[in-house]
Design a protein that fits this description.
Layout lengths: L4 E7 L3 E8 L4 E8 L11 E2 L1 H16 L8 E8 L5 E3 L9 E2 L7 H10 L15 H11 L1 H6 L2 E3 L1 H10 L4 E2 L10 H13 L10 E2 L4 E4 L2 H7 L6 E3 L2 E2 H8 L8 E5 L3 E8 L14 E7 L4 H12 L1 H7 L3 H9 L10 E3 L17 E3 L7 H23 L9 E5 L6 H11 L2 E5 L5 H14 L14 E5 L6 H26 L5
Parallel strand pairs: 1-5, 5-13, 9-10, 14-19, 19-20
Antiparallel strand pairs: 1-2, 2-3, 4-7, 6-8, 11-12, 14-15, 15-16, 17-18, 20-21
Length: 501
């Protein structure tokens, strides 16, 4: 008997994952596709919108294969990295490559916005070089011919929805110019006015579960699906992972450890403010960067400590590393590592910070240094988790961890010990974002009642229980770790220049 299904993708920084999901929320098939990252100048990070679309076309055709009939696809949705900037003309043609979230070219523009709107005097968070609005202003100032020609400035997800349906719309989780919050909307308009950017260049917003159109004949032929297949709003990667991790309940918290990394918790919305675009009508996601570029930093650490093994073993380096770490005790014999080779994000937000191995003695090996590096990321996670307590002070019985980092057992056990709580690794920990995106289509179709329903389909592949005998050592080291940045900040600034955000 034919089985209806939905298709979705999670389009990240280094590639995308496409999934076929049953109408009950079960993953039936998945595949991945890479695409390039272009760094044509210092601090630049761009990707090709056309390469995005072609990767989706290849993955959708590949994942269906011979096992799933195209006519049984009930709907599709896209999940994407956030804060992409893609100007398009009136015919929907991209006028330049996408300026992605990790681009940091707009330091001067950030400073100008801060000064124009007197953010410091108003007690508001200062914009940084990587902020969406700073880069919008950069586009307005440095590429005026593109700004004048563009009919719309789309985010990555909005571009894909336009390619699929011909309709121009932005889902609420990817919109940073339009919102349902009157207070936040007034603030957005204040910033855009100061930057001389026309609000009319940004599309209307929709909910992630809204049907935004149907596949055009051209898009259907590209994707190998029937013309008229429903397309839903979709979402950005953070709420996608909240949904896919099964932690969309109030207070639910997950960590993501991939190319980037974050802490995200669903917390009560403040009466007059929206911290992040809402996951649903009642709750908000509080998102915190974890202070380190996880994937890039781990690659740096491996190349530093295990250069030959990394070169010869390829992906087998991780199995080799797991064996090496077996001999290192909790706390790495009191070796501390700051995982800031590329600067530090929240809670430090310092471009001057750098990696440090502290308290090294002649008994420490490279395995000690590797484990201390992973423990350092855990300390950053704990700092950010404690910041969430202000909005949601209840203690957690567990935290779900998704992304490639979840496959490292020594890292995950250290995390359980440092957090004093169970660490749950779900099945398909790297693909939970795509599954969360698929859920937006399932809700839109009426096949799934709510985001919370998906939790019943998230099975734990592994649970790491905290070991109380390690609490005292890790608490001692955590307290010392928190002191390191304050002690070294003046040195970092002297050697590496002032903090620019």
């Amino acid at each position: 008997m034919a089985q209806k299904y939905v298709m979705a993708c999670d389009l990240g920084t280094s590639g995308l994952k496409a999934v076929i999901v049953s109408m009950e929320g079960e993953v039936l098939a998945s595949t991945t596709e890479p695409y390039a990252l272009y760094t044509r100048a210092p601090l630049y990070a761009e990707q090709s919108p056309e390469e995005y679309w072609q990767a989706i076309c290849r993955s959708f055709r590949s994942v269906r294969g011979e096992n799933f009939a195209a006519e049984d696809c009930a709907g599709i949705a896209f999940g994407t990295q956030w804060k992409g900037i893609i100007p398009v003309d009136s015919d929907g043609n991209a006028l330049r490559d996408c300026i992605i979230w990790m681009d940091k070219r707009a330091a001067a523009e950030a400073q100008e916005i801060n000064e124009k709107l007197k953010f410091a005097e108003r007690g508001l968070r200062l914009y940084a070089a990587a902020d969406y609005w700073s880069k919008l202003y950069w586009l307005r100032k440095h590429e005026p011919e593109i700004y004048d020609k563009c009919a719309y400035i789309l985010d990555t997800n909005g571009y894909l929805k336009m390619r699929a349906t011909g309709n121009v719309v932005c889902d609420i989780t990817n919109s940073y110019t339009r919102t349902l919050s009157p207070q936040r909307q007034a603030f957005y308009e204040e910033v855009l006015t100061a930057c001389d950017i026309d609000m009319a260049k940004f599309p209307p917003i929709c909910l992630s579960t809204d049907k935004v159109g149907s596949l055009t004949a051209v898009a259907a032929a590209d994707l190998g699906l029937p013309e008229g297949t429903p397309v839903f709003g979709g979402c950005c990667d953070i709420p996608a992972m909240v949904i896919g991790s099964g932690r969309s309940e109030l207070g639910g918290t997950h960590f993501y450890l991939g190319t980037s990394g974050w802490v995200a918790g669903v917390v009560p919305r403040e009466p007059n403010e929206t911290y992040r675009p809402p996951l649903d009508a009642e709750n908000d996601i509080e998102f915190l960067g974890i202070g380190v570029q996880v994937g890039r930093g781990t690659d740096w650490m491996l190349n530093l400590l295990y250069p030959e093994e990394t070169k010869t073993l390829g992906k087998g380096i991780f199995e080799f590393l797991n064996k090496e770490l077996e001999s290192v005790p909790a706390g790495s014999d009191r070796l501390l590592a700051t995982p800031w080779a590329f600067g530090a994000r929240k809670p430090l937000a310092s471009t001057s910070a750098r990696a440090v191995f502290f308290n090294v003695n002649d008994k420490h090996t490279r395995a000690h240094m590797a484990k201390a590096y992973f423990e350092g990321i855990c300390y950053m996670l704990r700092q950010n988790r404690e910041r969430l307590y202000k909005a949601w002070p209840q203690e957690l019985e567990s935290i779900t961890v998704c992304g490639g980092g979840a496959a490292n057992p020594h890292w995950m056990q250290a995390m359980a010990d440092i957090m004093h709580t169970d660490i749950i690794i779900p099945e398909d920990a790297q693909g939970r974002g795509a599954i969360g995106v698929a859920c937006t289509a399932l809700i839109g179709l009426g096949a799934v009642e709510s985001y919370a329903t998906l939790k019943d389909h998230v099975r734990a592949a592994k649970v790491y229980h905290p070991r109380p005998e390690n609490f005292a050592e890790y608490d001692l080291l955590y307290d010392q770790f928190k002191k390191l940045y304050a002690s070294l900040e003046d040195i970092f600034v002297t050697l590496n220049g002032p903090i620019t955000g």
